[in-house]
C-alpha cells in the first residue's frame, strides 16, 4: 500500500506495509520530554560538578589549616649543627654574680649627735645567755625604755638583749657577750665594760636616755 501524504493534523509513519497517523500534539510532547530530560541531565551533572569543586576547595582549605608552620631558618641551622641523635650542647644562662658577703663593720666608737638608735635590732623576749657564763647587766628599765637602750647598744657595736627581770614591770638590758670566770679577769671583759659606760654617757646626753649605764655590773647566768 502506498504511504499516504501527511495531513494537517498529524504525521504519518510507514511500518510493515502499513501507515500510522500520529497526531502532532504527541510529537511535540515527545520532543518536549526529550528536551526536559536532556536539561535535567545537564542540571544534575552541573550540580554534581559544583558539589565536587566545593568539596575540593574545602579539602584544600583544611590542608592549609593543618599545614605545619614555616620552618625557622635558625632552627634548621641548629639542626644542621646538631644532627638528629646527637646530644645538643647545654644552654648556658649567664647569671649575675652574687654580691660578696662581708662581715658587718663595727660602727665608730662614739655615735654622732644625729645618729638614730635602733639601727640594729636587739633580741627581745628570748634570753640568749648560756648558763654558767658571766654577762654584763647594763640597766634595769621598763620594757619600752629597755628595748630602746638595747637597740642603741646593738647599733653601736655592743650586742644587747632585753630579758625578764625579777620584777614583772621591769626588764634587764644585757650585753650578750658571755665570759667565763677566767675571761672576766682579762682585758676583753674590761674593755667591754668601758665601752658600755662610754656609750651610756652619749645615750643619756644626746638621746635623752633614762640612764648612762654607770652601774653596769657582771652577773653569772644561772637559769
Q: What report would you give on this structure?
A:
By secondary structure, the chain is of the alpha+beta class. The protein contains four helices and seven strands; from the N terminus they run ββααββαββαβ. The chain has a five-stranded mixed beta sheet with strand order 3-5-6-4-7, covered by helices on one side. The protein has a two-stranded antiparallel sheet with strand order 1-2. β1 and β2 form a beta hairpin. The longest helix is centred in the N-terminal third of the chain and has 43 residues. It is rod-shaped. It starts with 9 loop residues before the first strand and ends with a strand. The N terminus is likely disordered.
Characteristics:
223 residues; alpha+beta; five-stranded mixed sheet; 16% strand; rod-shaped; disordered N terminus
Shape: rod-shaped
| Unreliable parts | 1-8, 64-69, 100-120
Strand order of the largest sheet: 3-5-6-4-7
How many helices in DSSP terms?
A: 4
Largest sheet: 5 strands, mixed
Strand proportion: 15-25%
How far is the N terminus from the C terminus?
A: 154 Å
> Could you estimate the helical fraction of the residues in percent?
25-40%
- H-E order: EEHHEEHEEHE
SSE-based structural type: alpha+beta
Average residue pLDDT: 74
Amino acid at each position: 500500500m502506498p504511504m499516504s501524504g501527511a495531513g494537517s493534523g498529524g504525521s504519518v509513519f510507514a511500518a510493515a506495509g502499513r501507515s500510522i497517523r500520529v497526531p502532532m500534539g504527541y510529537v511535540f510532547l515527545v520532543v518536549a520530554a526529550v528536551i526536559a530530560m536532556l536539561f535535567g541531565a545537564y542540571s544534575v551533572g552541573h550540580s554534581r560538578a559544583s558539589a565536587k569543586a566545593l568539596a575540593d576547595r574545602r579539602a584544600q582549605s583544611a590542608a592549609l589549616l593543618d599545614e605545619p608552620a614555616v620552618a625557622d631558618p635558625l632552627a634548621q641551622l641548629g639542626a644542621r649543627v646538631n644532627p638528629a641523635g646527637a646530644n645538643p650542647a647545654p644552654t648556658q644562662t649567664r647569671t649575675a654574680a652574687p654580691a660578696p658577703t662581708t662581715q658587718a663593720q663595727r660602727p665608730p666608737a662614739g655615735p654622732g649627735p644625729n645618729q638614730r638608735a635602733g639601727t640594729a635590732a636587739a633580741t627581745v623576749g628570748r634570753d640568749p645567755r648560756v648558763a654558767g657564763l658571766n654577762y654584763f647587766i647594763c640597766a634595769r628599765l621598763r620594757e619600752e625604755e629597755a628595748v630602746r637602750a638595747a637597740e642603741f647598744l646593738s647599733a653601736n657595736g655592743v650586742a644587747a638583749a632585753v630579758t625578764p627581770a625579777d620584777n614583772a614591770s621591769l626588764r634587764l638590758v644585757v650585753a650578750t657577750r658571755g665570759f667565763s670566770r677566767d675571761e672576766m679577769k682579762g682585758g676583753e671583759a674590761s674593755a667591754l665594760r668601758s665601752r658600755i659606760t662610754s656609750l651610756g654617757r652619749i645615750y643619756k646626753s644626746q638621746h635623752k636616755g633614762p640612764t648612762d649605764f654607770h652601774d653596769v655590773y657582771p652577773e653569772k647566768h644561772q637559769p
